[in-house]
Amino acid sequence: MLTANVYWCRVTYNSLSTKTHLRNHLPLSGSLFRTFDSADNFAWELNHEGYGSRVVAFASRKTVKKQRRNKERKDEGMLQSGNSLDDSNGMEDNYSSRGDVVDDDLSVVNDKSEVSSVSKVVPSRRDVLQACVLTSGLIAALGFTIRQVSTVASEVGLPFFDCSQVSFGFEVWHLELIMGLVLSISIARYTLLKTWTDFAESSESANTQVLTSLQTVDYLIVAFLPGFSEELLFRGALLPLFGLNLKSALAVASIFGALHLGSGRKFSFAIWATFVGLAYGYATIVTSSVVVPMAAHALNNLIGGILWYQTSRSSRQISS
What we know:
Shape: elongated
Number of strands: 4
Order of helices and strands: EEEEHHHHHHHH
Strand content: 5-15%
Helix content: 55-70%
Structural class: alpha+beta
Oligomer: single chain
């Protein structure tokens, strides 16, 4: 029998449980209470935590008829609650679909950013080294051919300067000239990087494209091969072919600077290369040796690469 005291019992159900008859109507967690009052009546009370809905159906234990009526009302109340929850779930699906649209838009933006980044892809280490070796080999072969042809032409009496006037000889005092060239050019480069924005951007673009994918030992290859081959062509072949004087040195240096345009290098970098080429040409005229500009050029390339590596490494550590 039921007493007049008030007491209750609680039944907790899980989301989408397959063990409860409420699974089709109550997809979220909640609580079901049964309470009794002093009049010997009882009620079913449903508290839904997700949406706060509450359905109450009253009945009486006095007659069987009232019990049946209470059961019918309780079933109707649960059905209505389930319908309201289904509507709420529909709203959630709508919000979810909107979220999917937003995610799709974001994926489109990410795809565009990936496409834009493809245009700035840095060449691989293998590609850089292959290009360096191939280009240096072709330049050196052209310089060597010009030297040989000019020598043969001068011997048969044709009006050509003999490029053999610039030899591969080396003397001790050439070391002082080499160190002076390396020091003066390095100081000039460092000063321009700090004061000339356009030159700094050109240098950064060129160095990033060439040096980013390389290992430390590769810096020797990309520094010495171009240094030797370019000086063999410009100061070992073209300069004596035009004449060993400052006018010829300036003309050859201008060609040398113009060929340094492109690959992110602007007009400012061409001016710098022209200045450096003129310095190498003067050293060639003074020493009559192509070894001096070769050594100075290669060492300056190496110092520039190491300086860029240290600067980029420091900036990455600061950003991280």
